[in-house]
Amino acid sequence: MATHARGLTERAGTQTARGAESVVRVHDLVRRFGDRQILAGLDLSIGGGEFVALLGRSGSGKSTLLRALAGLDYDVAGSGEIDAPSRLSVVFQDSRLLPWQRVLDNVVLGLSGPDALAHGRESLAEVGLAGRERAWPNQLSGGEQQRVALARSLVREPELLLADEPFGSLDALTRIRMHGLLRQLCDRHKPAVLLVTHDVDEAIVLADRILIIDAGRIGVEVEVDLDSPRDPTDPRFAELRRYLLSRLGIDPCVDFRTVEQSVGASR
Fold first, then answer.
1. Is 162 exposed, middle or buried (0-12, 13-18, 19+ CB in 10 A)?
2. I need a labelling partner for 164 at 20 to 30 A (CA). Which of 20, 46, 151, 179 fits?
3. pLDDT digit string (tens) for 86-118?
4. Are residues 133 and 248 in the same domain?
């Protein structure tokens, strides 16, 4: 049964938002590491062009699921049913640029054909790095390196973009800028997106649908019905944030900034 609360729609199951046809289908996925079961019969669907954010406690299986979808975990693939596009890209927290290759060469790595370099330049222009094609990775800031990583992923026009905490190492202001850029790029290229994140605000700002993984399964599924661009001062945003934090086992009434300041003062 669905529940509704000003901008919040929680649903049972793993249907896609807005009736989009599924491009990702996962059924009864199981993954064990020794005696520890991480994924316990997980089901998931993602529609074409849908942006899904995946939250969960550390060790809950978020990155394990992403690696399975990316085809990077062969042990998990045989435990259940995974149907994902072959044309997919992965963005990691580390940009993983090759330091001995210039920026443009990093973007077009693995591409072939007479138009590869032209497409690479276009992709760099999309992320605001026109003119930096000949730069070395170590000449770029952390945010610029992640822009290159996005360009490298999207130049391949993937049907599925998998993002594993891609902004986790960036400062707060750079993260805000990257959120806007990622949403803009996804609206333009329209891949299905699965974003793994620990940041509840990031999930609300970016996603069409937010999932929480718990005990190896999708325990919470919320369709985000908020206007874009999303304003953190909107009461509906705050309500959804409190709800998600509570489902993650965090008391949303705690002012963590005050706690951090108090701890810092006592050191």
1. buried
2. 20
3. 999 999 999 999 999 999 999 999 998 889 999
4. no
